[in-house]
């Protein structure tokens, strides 16, 4: 059973998520960067995600709209920019919740490392503008959302490889 | 005499720069975001800066090329994206050295606060991807470059207000 680790270290301003997948880095990277597949895993089962733009290259924009599947279906928009894209290995990008006030920007580093058994160790570091900004996310259901999203991605990878 | 404070706290992953200007926030903000004025202060006296693009609005790109005035004149390109732009008050953007390897991305928060005497307290927080990444900048002449650039900006503001 592959599990997702979500690490919040006290006093730090980042959240570190790790997860192993049974497919090699190029396959995991390809699945995560495919706009067609995003609605199948990004945002967890609770949200329906639409990709407005996803231009995975240096300087390219991404912009996703999510709606809660139950309830009012208010749209929540997230967007950012790709700063580094190294196929099969690394993505450095930004993530911002568009309707929030200014700030609350995250700098996200996704890395993909081959494991000895042909799998991938995926690490996601989300760096927040301050410790307070990060700590504001901890009481939310972000952690269960991450676990659920990566479980969904695991299923998507199982199908596509 | 207005001075620039540059603060590197041990173990943190940011650099905090503060400086007061004798002009109000809207004037300082307007000077800093004017592409025509960038070559007169950005990058310090040691470098000649050319603005390739500077689209100061959410999602807009900026890209500057600098060349050392003495020596070989090798071009160094810096670029990033504006995430928040609140006129007279706040800019949140990214900054990356284009020719470096991946990573080394900075998340930059510029804030402009009115002081009681009609001036501005300018604060610049540069957040790095790690403490190590930040610490790599400390032995460089970055600090003197910041002081020199903000002194030049002070002169530019003195002329334009």
Automatic annotation (TrEMBL), chains A, B:
Domain Activator of Hsp90 ATPase homologue 1/2-like C-terminal: 22-156
InterPro entries xrefs: ASHA1/2-like_C, START-like_dom_sf
Naturally occurring in which organism (per UniProt): Jiangella aurantiaca
Name listed for the protein in its UniProt record: ATPase
SUPFAM superfamilies, per database record: Bet v1-like
Similarity comment text for this entry: Belongs to the AHA1 family.
Pfam families linked to this entry: AHSA1
Coiled coil (residue ranges): none
């Amino acid at each position: 059973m592959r599990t997702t680790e979500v690490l919040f270290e006290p006093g730090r301003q980042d959240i570190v998520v790790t997860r192993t997948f049974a497919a090699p880095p190029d396959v995991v990277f390809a699945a995560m960067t495919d706009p067609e597949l995003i609605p199948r895993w990004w945002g967890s089962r609770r949200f329906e995600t639409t990709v407005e733009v996803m231009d995975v290259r240096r300087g390219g924009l991404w912009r996703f709209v999510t709606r809660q599947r139950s309830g009012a279906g208010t749209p929540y928009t997230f967007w950012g920019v790709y700063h580094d894209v190294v196929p099969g290995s690394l993505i450095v990008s930004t993530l911002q919740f568009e309707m929030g006030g200014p700030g609350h920007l995250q700098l996200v580093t996704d890395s993909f490392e081959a494991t000895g058994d042909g799998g991938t160790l995926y690490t996601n570091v989300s760096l927040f503008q301050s410790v307070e900004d990060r700590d504001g996310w901890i009481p939310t259901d972000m952690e269960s959302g991450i676990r659920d999203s990566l479980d969904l991605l695991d299923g998507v990878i199982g199908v596509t490889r």
